[in-house]
Design brief:
58% of the residues lie in helices and 14% in strands. The radius of gyration is 16 Å and the shape is globular. Helix 2 packs across helix 3. The protein is α/β, with parallel strands linked by helices. The protein has a five-stranded parallel β-sheet. Bound molecules: adenosine-5'-diphosphate. Adenosine-5'-diphosphate binds next to helix 2 and helix 3.
């Protein structure tokens, strides 16, 4: 089983690259951002609660996202593997994921960490906002807060996975195809 964490700051290209990896390796794509937006669109209680955090560029509480991932793991037991995209985002989420996967004897194979310069992140998010209409991609102060939140709460996960010997840094600058090629090279060795 291949279980990948696709990691990086907002705008690093996780969603775009996840699509390639899903096709190449027949994996199940679990994006907490997408799952949360589905809940918001459905107007569920969970969605309404999450929206308050997302529109400010803050993290949704750990127990909410961990519960969603747990449910998805339980409903996809026949999967060949998973791509976790935008999850984990805190050390507590990473610990919870490790214990859920270890229960099944299917640990994380590797963490693929996309590295992108800050100005490029802001440019990508603003241009995505124009196309997608996502409110959190259109407000520069929300974008700033998401990057700050990443630096404070999410980037410590690099060390968390380094300690497990599972961190792979990947240059996330350049064309989509070039970055996909770099990712494939690393995954082929896992
Ligand atoms: P991006 O990576 O561009 O920020 P996402 O779709 O992954 O986009 O996330 C959008 C928002 O959803 C985040 O800013 C955050 O509020 C919330 N979110 C997504 N995943 C998580 C998570 N694992 N933990 C907490 N909040 C999350």
């Amino acid at each position: 089983m291949l279980n990948l964490v696709l990691f990086g700051p907002p705008g690093a290209g996780k969603g775009t690259q996840a699509e390639f990896l899903v096709k190449a390796y027949n994996l199940t794509h679990l994006s907490t951002g997408d799952l949360l937006r589905t809940e918001i669109a459905a107007g569920s209680k969970l969605g309404l609660e999450a929206q308050r955090f997302m529109e400010k560029g803050e993290l949704v509480p750990d127990e909410v996202v961990i519960g969603m991932i747990k449910g998805k793991l339980e409903s996809n037991t026949g999967s060949k593997g998973f791509i976790f995209d935008g999850f984990p985002r805190t050390v507590d989420q990473a610990k919870a994921l490790d214990s859920l996967l270890n229960e099944n004897g299917t640990p994380i194979s590797g963490m693929l960490s996309l590295e992108v310069e800050k100005q490029e992140l802001v440019n990508r998010l603003l241009s995505r906002g124009k196309i997608s209409g996502r409110a959190d991609d259109q407000d520069p102060s929300v974008i700033e807060n998401r990057i700050k939140t990443y630096n404070e709460k999410t980037s410590p996960l690099i060390d968390y996975y380094k300690k497990q010997g599972k961190h792979f840094g990947i240059n996330g600058m350049g064309s989509i195809e070039d970055i996909a090629g770099r990712l494939r090279k690393v995954v082929a060795e896992l």
